[in-house]
From TrEMBL:
Span of domain N-(5'phosphoribosyl) anthranilate isomerase (PRAI): 5-207
Protein name: N-(5'-phosphoribosyl)anthranilate isomerase
HAMAP family on file: PRAI
Pathway: Amino-acid biosynthesis; L-tryptophan biosynthesis; L-tryptophan from chorismate: step 3/5
The keyword Isomerase is annotated on this UniProt entry: yes
Native source organism of the sequence: Paracoccus mangrovi
Entries under Pfam families matching the protein: PRAI (PF00697)
Gene Ontology MF annotations: phosphoribosylanthranilate isomerase activity
Coiled coil start-end: none
Gene: trpF
Record flagged with keyword Iron: no
Length: 215
């Protein structure tokens, strides 16, 4: 089975082109003003116009209100919504109904007790993104380049399609996939040369390693 790859936090055409050329199946755009990867609806509209058919364009939001979702979707033809805040399962269902789009819900893991949330959100989300919990005092709820203990997921059945995230890099991605048997991965800071600026060479190396056969 080939591992699917999402490259998140794209802000400029070179990074986007590298992700597409290397075989990413999902590309993500951050609509969260505090993030160094934030894009305006106008910037995002220019970028998504360059995405070929067959690659899903994902909008990442943190506890968005309905007005923000509508304002972005009025200008940007997204294929999926990613919710990366403290949205409840009921809010995930509301966002699905409001936007008519599939929703990816990010769930943070640090310890075994956190695994229960995968079941709760798996009942309503179309896809789960299993990430590290942000470090104490972090300014952002994601995109922090921090990994969790992948052994938490070893041997687990997950209710919905899912992506592994958190601190993945070209150097550790093969081991992360081997331990978790993740069907897909999501990466942001591990393929950057600076916050918000993707490094085409790191993207190519990451995707080559993530999609190589696992022994
Ligand atoms: O990337 C951001 O700036 C960001 C801001 C607010 C919420 C989530 C954010 N990113 C989430 C992601 O897309 C990341 O792929 C995921 O958390 C893993 O990040 P990283 O450890 O940097 O690969």
């Amino acid at each position: 089975m080939t591992v699917t790859v999402k490259i998140c936090g794209l802000t400029e055409p070179a990074g986007l082109a590298a992700a597409v050329a290397a075989g990413a199946r999902y590309v993500g755009f951050v609509f969260f003003a505090k993030s160094p990867r934030h894009v305006s609806p106008e910037q995002a509209a220019d970028l998504v116009a360059q995405v070929p058919l067959g690659i899903a364009k994902v909008g990442l939001f943190v506890d968005p209100d309905d007005a923000l979702l509508r304002a972005v979707l009025d200008k940007v033809p997204l294929d999926m919504i990613q919710l990366h805040g403290a949205e409840t399962p009921a809010r995930v269902a509301e966002v699905k109904a409001l936007t008519g789009l599939p929703v990816i819900k990010a769930v943070g893991l640090a310890e075994p007790a956190d695994l229960d949330a995968l079941w709760d959100y798996g009942l309503v989300a179309d896809m789960l993104l299993i990430d590290a919990k942000p470090p104490k005092g972090a300014a952002l709820p994601g995109g922090n380049g921090v990994a969790f203990d992948w052994r938490l997921l070893a041997g687990r059945q997950i209710l919905k399609p899912w992506l592994l995230a958190g601190g993945l890099t070209p150097d550790n991605v093969a081991e992360a996939i081997r331990l978790t048997r993740a069907p897909g991965i999501d990466v942001s800071s591990g393929v950057e040369s600076a916050p918000g600026i993707k490094d085409p060479d790191r993207i190519r190396r990451l995707i080559a390693r993530a999609t190589a056969p696992i022994l």
